[in-house]
């Protein structure tokens, strides 16, 4: 699994757990819905640390809390 896939999966799981749609996450985070959907789109995966931080702020969680998850513990080395 790539880092981008892990980030998108983590946000999707958090949204599912909190019963939040991706569009609502975008609104809470102050980003456009198209930004949120492009991050979740497996073919695009446009992800930046700034967007991750904004999403975390919208979810009332820190970056540390976000990345402190098993999804990020055993990622393969990024060679691209």
Describe this structure in words.
The protein is mostly helical and 80 residues long. The chain has a single domain, classed as 434 Repressor (Amino-terminal Domain) (Orthogonal Bundle). It contains five helices and no strands. The chain has helices spanning 3-18, 22-29, 33-40, 49-58, 63-67. Helix 2 (22-29) packs across helix 4 (49-58). It is globular and about 35 Å long. The protein starts with a helix and ends in a 13-residue tail after the last helix. The model has no long low-confidence stretch (mean pLDDT 91).
Low-pLDDT residue spans: none
**Shape verdict:** globular
According to CATH, what is the class?
A: Mainly Alpha
- The ordered string of helix (H) and strand (E) elements is HHHHH
As a whole number of angstroms, the C-alpha radius of gyration is 12 Å
Question: In a nutshell, what does this entry contain?
Answer:
With 80 residues, the protein is mainly α. The chain is built from five helices and no strands.
Topology:
Elements: H1 3-18, H2 22-29, H3 33-40, H4 49-58, H5 63-67
Summary keywords:
mainly alpha; 80 residues; single chain
């Amino acid at each position: 699994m790539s880092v981008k896939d892990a980030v998108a999966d983590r946000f999707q799981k958090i949204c599912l757990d909190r019963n939040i749609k991706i569009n609502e996450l975008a609104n809470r985070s102050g980003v456009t819905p198209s930004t949120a959907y492009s991050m979740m789109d497996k073919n695009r995966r446009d992800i930046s640390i700034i967007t991750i931080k904004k999403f975390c702020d919208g979810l009332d969680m820190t970056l540390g809390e976000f990345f402190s998850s098993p999804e990020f513990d055993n990622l393969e080395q990024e060679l691209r």
